[in-house]
Design goal:
Elements (H helix, E strand, L loop, with lengths): L3 H7 L4 H6 L11 E8 L4 E7 L8 E4 L2 E3 L1 E3 L6 E6 L7 E7 L10 E4 L11 E7 L15 H12 L5 E5 L8 H4 L5 H14 L11 H19 L8 E4 L11 E2 L2 E2 L5 H14 L11 H4 L2 E6 L3 E6 L15 H13 L4 E6 L33 H15 L6 E5 L5 E9 L2 E2 L5 E6 L10 H4 L10 E10 L2 E9 L2 E9 L15 E6 L3
Helix pairs in contact: 3-6, 6-7, 9-10
Length: about 525
Amino acid sequence: MFDRRGFLRGGALGLGGVFAGGVAWSRPRDLVRTILPSATHDTLALKVLLDRPPSEAPLLAIDGRFVKAQRVDQDGYSWAFVQRGLAAGKRHRLTLTDASGAALREPWQLSTLPAPDATPERFRVLFFTCAGGDEALGPNQFLPIATRRALLDRALSFQPDLAIANGDHVYWDQKTVLEYGRNPERRAKAAEFQREIAYIDESKAFDDEANRRSVNTVAGRQIAALYEDRFASVPLHFITDDHDYFENDNAGEWGYAFPPRPFILGLLRRTQQLAYPLALGRPDLPTWQAETLETVRIGKLIELALFDCRRGWSTDGNGVVLPEIERLLLDRLRSSDAAHYVHVPSNPFGWSKGALGEWYADGPPGETPQVNDKRYWQQSWFDQHQRLVRALSEQRDRAAITISGDLHAVGATRITRSGDLDLSRNPVRALVAGPVGTATNGFPSSARGAFPFTPAALRADPLNKLEEKNGFTLFDVTRDKIEVRQFRWRPPEPVEAIARLEPYSTFTIERPV
């Protein structure tokens, strides 16, 4: 825990104030605090967060060619750089200086992705989830930032070519905790904590000055402080989930938390603008729909569809993924010429923890729907699940694969039946990536009184034992197979052991013969 009053005296008005107090940085203080890169086959992009607004724009050069800086927040803490027209599959040299030419960090390299018609021999992808949370809530609520950094550093030691952070980059829930939470004591404590650190006032505009500075504080403490510049040479993609909208996936007599009301949508967009990597693979759709899908293509080797399962919540038969996005997912699955096609939803296939916002009807064991908000669950959500898993399983020359976030666990299962669908010819391999920020109170057994379980509508066999532990997943992709390695760690195991973590499970997903 830290001295909250001291933190406030240090100033929590913007990223500079956040960086000055409350979070211990792992590197010497300088102007650059966070570098979040993204890439396609011909484009490199950077989001750079600074400790304090500069008097003039910073200068980025790629292979000696300067790239125009775009200030993406009105306070001047966050800057974006996008360079198109680069050679595919090449390492490029980057330098970052201030306006006078003084180096802001050592030069580094970042690669463009392979060309669309290329078939690289091998490509490694890192997956993880649930990295957010304010460490000041205590070690039983979220892991210390230093521990999360250690997990990411161990994952990066395996030199992935690409990384995907699947949802819950921040936890700062508003009405679902502060007003509608079932535990009055928890509501009161959460309200007190938020008032002291970063109070958000919904009676004002989401981008009111005080609210804007509070979002700066949340993003600074939960995203910028974690990532720093450790991913500077690894393209990084963020998928959004419920907590990224500053709410939990709840419902009650007051209504549904999703689809997001304009205020929390504004908070999400403000956080994205400030502290998410630039998304380069959005579809050509109106913003409301386009923001929920990003496609990542690694030549003809693998295509990844990253999608948000919250914004499309529907009570009128449309499911949890927006209808336009579902159509794109199905069309692309059938038309892609990639050797592997993987769905990467924010919401897990294959398991339930009894939460409302899942594909499945199951509530927590021992609780009736009248006690739990699962009574607000919609059959159309499972119907949409059925369309997606059927299309995955119907692929003739590709394995059916999905890897998700949200569950606060790591593991893998093999779904052979879903409702009335026989998937045994090409079972759906459903993986959960592993969280990096979850502490005791966040695991389903504590938070919901139920260990994650196989929903009643499914028949599934474990590929890897599901465990309520922190961890991450690596895919080593070749044309004919994906070698999967899953890692786990949880206190009371010593933090020092993270640097030596080895996979607790390794298995192979082969393309159908």
